[in-house]
Design goal:
The complex is a heterodimer of chains A (237) and B (761). Chain A has 237 residues and is of the alpha/beta class. Chain A contains five helices and eleven strands; from the N terminus they run E-H-E-E-H-E-H-E-E-E-E-H-E-E-E-H. In chain A, 21% of the residues lie in helices and 24% in strands. The radius of gyration of chain A is 16 Å and the shape is globular. Chain A binds chain B through residues 9-10, 12-13, 15-16, 19-20, 23, 33, 49-51, 53-56, 109-113, 139, 141, 143, 203, 205-206, 208-209, 211-213, and chain B through 145, 148-149, 152-155, 237-240, 242-243, 329-331, 433-442, 444-445, 447, 456, 458, 571-572.
Chain lengths: 237, 761
């Protein structure tokens, strides 16, 4: 199985996503340069974390104009699984592939720390191996992770079960003290209506080996491998 | 044209000017004078420090690159080299904290990747005035967010460091940044220009008027006009640096490079003359070809600009197109601005006009060297006297933690312990390191706030541990011993992770070297560093000197900061200071002597900085470090915590933190040094005797730990065991500390946040 890791100028978690897929999961991973126009037969696309194009305008705002994004969109339109992590999530929001927007953290500071997220839905390719309500310990590292959507949109996301991950405490309870950045409805991750595009602010690729403090992120990558192997997903780049 | 006023503005003395005329055989023009002034500034030439630095040990079988290149390198096995250096950005950070710190990070990262290494970790050592001094919160916030803004964007984790608060740094904060990278040992790239006719390329950001005379600024004292020097501070662009980093590493893999150097202090001037000098060649460039951000820039301004994120490359003949293509991929334009010549001179042209023509060696190896006069400062005789019997009773001793709390009568040291844990220098720095991305690159296996930072090396079984440490207070009281203690502490912190210390880098922060008392402090400190590095087997592979850290004639404490790098053969055998299992034995390696000189206790409770710093037996220290490395490697210990600021009681508390509130109960002896009983208790708890490590071990392994210690001639004894939810310490059989771990941890972890909360309220 082949993971495509998109590399924008300024991406800096590309090697970490590659390492998780290639070395930890034992799958095949390949870097795809943002100026490329071919996903080279990938089964899964990862938009990694970082500061694409420097993020000087708005986080993710420039990256959606990179040539590869047209291919990513076409891949997603065919039902292919796309995972946006941190800056990758921000790019998906800016590209209109996921709804809503990001504000600065309510602390107004960059925050790097372990948080807990609860798996809200398991019918996406990236959560299919999870238990509903499973609590994962996965780190965040961002300055703009305060998810914003107006109340109507939040209501629609809830109704359509598009909220995939929520910030909780260790016990899986949604409480304000466990929301690291002020995100609306404690949203840590979302999917699109078709459920094949998932974006999340925490970094599952940083939680794939116990030596790093947590291996809870592995289940997200295992989910997509399983989904593809089981034939639940057929799209190919 | 060149009169005494012009010379003064350039920071050159009349004697130095005469030397310039001798080198040139004529009067310099203004551009040449500018070039000499930056290259002969203290910052670039090390003219006051060089004679002393020469005495430092720089060699060892593990050293692949000693001082003189962009960074030092040590062999870490598997054909790999760890490349590292520490540098200061003190002066710019005082004037503009965010950009000053950010560009400090940018500069040290360039030094590392210039050597062909992929940077994988950052550390920083920061010093400010008291946290409640008016300017400190602004400086601290600016510096921390500047470090975060740059390091996070470029994707290099900040894995550790130290933050110290002391009134002497109020007008001169210290911002020392350390970077470490990994390269194939065979592929280390040097900053040389050679091969007549090879092209000299400029790549990166365009040149502007920012930072002109930054190096000269860093070589002068501050006064109330310093804020006006803001234009001499540069502005950083981490995105540009990220592109440069990736593109340069790609170019280096192509084998088309002869040499490369970043344009840091003294910009184009320094890179052209140093590369030429190292390669025994000359460099000729045309400044009109240099990409410029502003119009009408003169050759003087172009040569002296310190605009950030610029590199100078010498490319093998015939490989130019290949190199240009790689930079184009990253949307960077490599511009050919000149070539290597055979004449050993720096020749600068502006189209057809020759605007500077100087022998390279005059700017580098033959720059002035001073053996400045030194005298032992008069203050020492007084401050070294500490009469414990005259200290009087401490108001804090026996004080209750909360009203109605009768534990204080049984455990009189509780309040002082909580005060120490909440003192800004000892308190948790989570407020700062939470703002740093300390996990990116997924190598960090020992998180910040727990002694040395540790990163694994993917593709091998190994890991690298690194720590930066200094103690200005000790060095103020005795610069030589203070410097030795700084080396010992950095090295001990590395050893406490299980890593064998391999090499060191130093950042020497001092006042005005033209004052004999300061120069004496400097020479003493360098002597101390040399002695400790020799004894502990950690040669100095490079570093940086920052002098003139004075404001309105008041100098900082002499503050050498030492970075030590060590190798862990098995990453999975790393240990941290945290106790792991309940019921383990707590063993103290080393022994206390009740030394309170220069301690945090003396400062906090009596507001005194006096006495002599703790004794240091280097032979004992070496044995202790070797022992703890061996014990960790053989998995005989489960944790190891270095004993330093705040003494044994604070160390024991820290060993309990972040561990689900698991406590410990220990019993130690009185180290009788005073008439007053409570001072003896305090000295045993909070004295800062060196060469001590608290380890924990499974009960079954204790005998072996003690036997190994005896064989290594390291004093060791079981002082208690882990478990429960309290920290309970008996001195001479009486309980003097008895607190809930949760309570102690709250005092420690919330202290800095509380300062900021108070600020806002």
């Amino acid at each position: 199985m082949k993971f495509a890791v998109i590399v924008f100028p300024g991406s800096n978690c590309d090697e970490d996503a590659y390492h998780a897929a290639q070395d930890v999961l034992g799958q095949h991973a390949e870097y795809i340069w943002h100026k490329d126009t071919d996903l080279k037969g990938a089964d899964v696309v990862i938009l990694p974390g970082g500061f694409a194009h420097g993020d000087y305008l708005r986080t993710g705002a420039m990256a959606r104009f990179s040539p590869i994004m047209r291919e990513v969109q076409a891949f997603a339109n065919r039902g292919g699984p796309v995972l946006g992590i941190c800056n990758g999530f921000q790019v998906l929001l800016e590209a209109g592939l996921l709804p809503g927007a990001m504000l600065r953290n309510r602390s107004l500071k960059f925050q790097c720390e372990q948080v807990h997220i609860r798996v809200e839905q398991t019918d996406t390719p990236f959560t299919s191996a999870c238990r509903k309500g499973q609590v994962l310990q996965i780190p965040i590292a961002h300055g703009d992770g305060n998810y914003f959507a107006d109340p109507d949109l939040i209501a629609r996301l809830e109704k359509d079960r598009q909220v995939i991950f929520r910030y909780t405490n260790r016990a899986g309870e949604v409480i304000d003290g466990a929301n690291p950045n002020g995100s609306a409805a404690a949203i840590a991750g979302l999917c699109n209506e078709r459920r094949n595009i998932v974006g999340l602010m925490p970094h599952p690729e940083r939680a794939c080996e116990s030596v790093l403090g947590s291996a809870d992120g592995l289940v997200i990558f295992r989910s997509v491998v399983q989904s593809i192997k089981s034939g639940a997903l057929v799209a190919r780049a | 044209m060149i009169d005494s006023r012009v010379l003064e503005r350039h920071g050159l003395t009349p004697t130095e000017y005469e030397r310039i005329e001798q080198f040139l055989g004529r009067e310099p023009n203004l551009t040449e004078l500018g070039i000499f002034s930056v290259m002969w500034s203290e910052h670039c030439s090390y003219k006051s420090s060089r004679v002393h630095l020469k005495t430092l040990p720089t060699e060892g079988p593990q050293v692949l690159q000693g001082p003189g290149e962009n960074a030092g390198a040590v062999d870490i096995g598997d054909g790999l080299a760890a490349i590292f250096k520490i540098e200061s950005h003190n002066h710019p950070s005082f004037i503009e904290p965010y950009q000053g710190a950010a560009t400090g990070v940018g500069g040290i990262i360039r030094d590392i990747f210039t050597m062909g290494a992929r940077p994988i970790a950052l550390l920083n050592s920061l010093r400010f005035g008291s946290l409640d001094a008016p300017a400190t919160p602004r400086l601290l916030e600016g510096v921390v967010s500047g470090i975060a803004g740059y390091g996070n964007s470029i994707g290099i984790p900040t894995v550790g460091g130290e933050i110290v608060f002391e009134p002497c740094y109020a007008g001169n904060p210290l911002v020392n940044v350390f970077c470490l990278g990994i390269a194939a040992a065979a592929d280390i790239v040097k900053g040389v220009a050679s091969g007549v006719g090879n092209a000299v390329y400029y790549v990166g950001a365009k040149t502007g008027r920012d930072g002109i005379h930054g190096a000269t600024m860093a070589s002068a004292e501050f006064d109330d006009k310093s804020a006006e020097k803001r234009p001499a501070v540069q502005v950083g662009d981490p995105f540009m640096e990220k592109l440069l980093l990736e593109a340069c590493l790609e170019v280096m893999r192509s084998d088309a490079l002869v040499g490369i150097q970043d344009m840091g202090a003294a910009g184009l001037t320094c890179s052209t003359s140093e590369m030429g000098s190292r390669g025994g060649a000359g460099v000729e460039i045309d400044v009109s070809l240099v990409p410029q951000r502003e119009t009408g820039m003169t050759p003087y301004e172009i040569m002296l600009s310190e605009s950030q994120e610029r590199m100078l490359l010498v490319v093998k003949r015939g490989r130019e197109a290949e190199v240009e293509r790689i930079f184009e991929k990253w949307d960077l334009h490599a511009v050919r601005i000149g070539e290597v010549t055979a004449n050993g001179r720096l020749r600068v042209k502006d189209r057809s006009a020759l605007v500077a023509d100087i022998p390279n060696r005059a700017l580098t190896d033959e720059a002035p060297v001073y053996r400045r006069p030194m005298t032992r400062p008069g203050y020492l005789a007084d401050v070294q006297i500490l009469d414990l019997d005259r200290l009087g009773a401490s108001a804090r001793w026996g004080e209750s933690i909360a009203p109605g709390d009768d534990v204080a009568s049984i455990a009189p040291g509780n309040h002082v312990l909580l005060m120490l844990l909440a003192s800004p220098t000892i308190a948790s720095k989570r407020w700062a390191y939470r703002q740093y991305d300390h996990m990116v690159r997924t190598n960090t296996i020992n998180l910040p706030g727990k002694g040395a930072g540790v990163v694994r090396i993917k593709g091998t079984k190994r890991a690298i541990a690194m720590s930066v440490d200094g103690n200005g207070r000790y060095c103020y009281l005795d610069p030589k011993r203070g410097a030795m203690l700084a080396v010992a502490e950095a090295s001990r912190n590395v050893a406490c992770t299980g890593a064998r210390p391999l090499g060191a880098t130093n950042c020497l922060n001092f006042g005005n070297p033209e004052r004999p008392a300061i120069m004496w402090q400097f020479a003493q400190a360098v002597e101390g560093i040399g002695a400790a590095c020799r004894a502990l087997g950690v040669p100095i592979t490079g570093g940086n000197v920052s002098l003139y850290n004075e404001t309105d004639g008041k100098a900082i404490y002499p503050t050498p900061v030492i970075g030590v790098v060590g190798l862990l053969e098995h990453a999975d055998r790393v240990v941290s200071s945290r106790f792991r299992e309940s019921g383990d034995a707590v063993v103290l390696l080393g022994e206390g002597r009740g030394e309170l000189g220069g301690s945090e206790y003396l400062k906090l409770v009596y507001d005194q900085v006096r006495g002599v710093p703790p004794l240091l037996d280097l032979e004992r220290e070496r044995a202790l470090q070797a022992l703890v490395v061996a014990l960790a490697d053989e998995r005989l210990i489960r944790s190891a915590g270095d004993c330093s600021d705040g003494g044994l009681a604070v160390t024991l508390a820290e060993c309990c933190f972040d561990g689900g509130e698991m406590g410990t109960e220990v019993s130690i002896d009185v180290e009788c040094i005073a008439r007053d009983g409570h001072i003896n208790d305090a000295a045993a708890l909070f004295g800062e005797s060196a060469s001590r490590i608290v380890v924990s071990a499974a009960v079954d392994d204790v005998t072996q730990v003690l036997e190994r210690a005896a064989a290594a001639h390291v004093p060791a004894r079981v002082i208690g065991q882990t478990g429960g939810n309290r920290l309970r310490i008996a001195v001479g059989g009486r309980i003097v500390i008895d607190v809930l771990i949760g309570e102690a941890e709250r005092a420690w972890s919330a202290a800095i946040d509380l300062y900021f909360a108070k600020q806002i309220a």
